[in-house]
Amino acid sequence: MCINLSDLIEIMPQIKILRVSESFTSNVYLIGQDAYLVIDTGLYAHNLIDAMKKSNISLESLQNIILTHSHVDHIGGLNELVEKTSADVSIHESEANYVEEGDKEATAAALFSLPLQGTPIARKLQDGDIIRFDEFVFEVLHTPGHTCGSICLYEKEARILFSGDTVFAHGSFGRTDLPPGGNSKDLVNSLERLAELNIDILAPGHMDVVNNGQSHIKKSYETAKIYL
Description:
The protein has 228 residues and is α/β, with parallel strands linked by helices. The protein has one domain: Ribonuclease Z/Hydroxyacylglutathione hydrolase-like (Metallo-beta-lactamase, Chain A), CATH 3.60.15. Helix content is 24%, strand content 25%. The protein has helices at 45-54, 72-75, 78-85, 96-101, 184-195, 213-227, and strands spanning 8-12, 15-18, 28-32, 36-39, 62-66, 88-92, 123-125, 130-133, 136-142, 151-155, 160-164, 201-204. Strands 1-2-3-4-5-6-7 form a seven-stranded mixed β-sheet. β8 and β9 (136-142) form a beta hairpin. α5 runs antiparallel to α6. The longest helix is centred in the last third of the chain and has 15 residues, at 213-227. The two termini are 29 Å apart.
C-alpha cells in the first residue's frame, strides 16, 4: 500500500494520514472517530485544520497530540493547533523542554530560519508508557538516534508502527547529524529493536506508508549497520 499526496486518507479504520505538497513538512496522523488524537502536527497547522474542516471534523474533537520528536517539521504547527483546540501535548521527557521553551537550535528551526513558539507539555513520556485512545493501545518505544528523545508508537493488535523519523520505508532511516543528540550507534540499536516487532503497517514521519513493515525495517537495520 502506498499513499499518494492528498488530504486525509484512511490507512485503516479510525486511522488517517495527511500528506501535503510541501516537501519539508512531516506526515500527520489523525486517529479516532468522535474524539481524535494526532501524531505530529507537521510544519503548518493550517494543513490539518483545513483537512479536518473538509472532512467535517470539528477542531474541538481534537483531544491529544503526540510528538515523535521535537524537530520543527513535526512540531511547527503545534502552538497554533493547541491554541485552537486546547489539546494536550505529549513528547518524550528528554525533549519536552525544547518544545516548552521554543528552542530554535534544538528543534532545527534556526537551521531553516523558521519561527517557533513555546508550547506547554501535558505529559512527558518514557519508554514503555501506554497510551490508550478509543480502541487503540499504543506502547511508547524510546528509539533514540535521529534525536535523543525520538519515539515510536506501537499498536500490537493492529500491528501498526508510527515510527517518526527513526525508520522509513524501503530501507531508509533518519539522519543522525542534527540536534538534539543525533547518534548513529543509538539509531542502529533502535532499528535492531524495531526489527524484532511483529509489524504489518509502517507509518513513518515522511514518505510512504507501507504494508509488510517488518521487512522494510529489517532492510533499514541491515543498511544502517553498513553505513552508520
